[in-house]
Amino acid sequence: MIELRPLRQFVVLAEELHFGRAALRLHMTQPPLTQAMQSLERTLGAPLFVRSQRKVTLSPAGEALLEPVRRLLHAAEDLPRLAQAAAAGLSGRLRLAFVSSIAYGPLPEWLRSFRAAHPEVLLQLREATLDVQLDAFATGEIDAGFVLHAEGAAPPGLAAWRALREPLVMALPASHPLAGRETLDFDLVAGAPLVIFPRVIAPSLFDAVLGAYRARGHTPRIAQEAIQMQTIVNLVSAGIGVAWVPASLMQLKRPGVEYVPLAGTPLRCDTSLVWRESAPPAVARFVAHVQADAAGRRQSGVA
Description:
It is built from 10 helices and 11 strands. It has 303 residues and is of the alpha/beta class. The protein folds into 2 domains: 4-87, Winged helix-like DNA-binding domain superfamily/Winged helix DNA-binding domain (Arc Repressor Mutant, subunit A, Orthogonal Bundle), CATH 1.10.10.10; 93-303, D-Maltodextrin-Binding Protein, domain 2 (3-Layer(aba) Sandwich). Strands 3, 4, 5, 6, 9, 10 and 11 form a 7-stranded mixed β-sheet that branches. The chain has a two-stranded antiparallel ribbon with strand order 1-2. Helix 5 links the parallel strand 3 (92-98) and strand 4 (121-127). The longest helix has 28 residues, at 60-87. The chain starts with a helix and ends with a helix.
């Protein structure tokens, strides 16, 4: 192992090319400096300086090492700052998962502004449904995630903050007789074949949707299950059925699909940001960032 002190001495001597002036800069006498350079040369197995009675010059090995040693010393000097930044959540890594629906809402702007405010935090993004995220939390593969669930039913065992509450709207084939209406009555679409996600990927929301049918005396006819919201909308465009989707999906302009809100009391869903209590400090920074942005949006009236 090579200590940093003789490397600093090497750089000063390389800059001065004079043992007396270098020793003066280093606040030491010349003999210890000479001994330190001889010891460093023995450790490295090559001469760093060419000495004569008149002058001192860098050897080829000394010239080759000068810039790498400067970079090494600079990196060593930066270690306290790096450690303090990581401890404060100003640097490090944030492994963030998200459901596809929030990508049509505020998530892209949150990511942009967080990256601008915290450029030393490495964001690793992963699109994943609730069931996949819960497995990833259990195995330590992610630090935080945006998950979709029924109103007020955030998954237990994790810290949670509700990022978004929005109504479910009906995605209809454009050829459907009810397409184009401003609102629709639940009973008018209750008999239509339904395209829905499997229960395993969002149990509380699946149960809430089917519960709404049963509460109104209907039995849903599930025509097709699909995992991704984009796929569900595409299946609607193909005429396979109708689908309840978060209102943010209305930003997905798929030809052949019309989105119509429900008349009366809407069905609602939540998207929550969840994270492990033992998550790295960068997670707390991200949570605080999106909470502050969401509060600002509410105050300014931006959805």
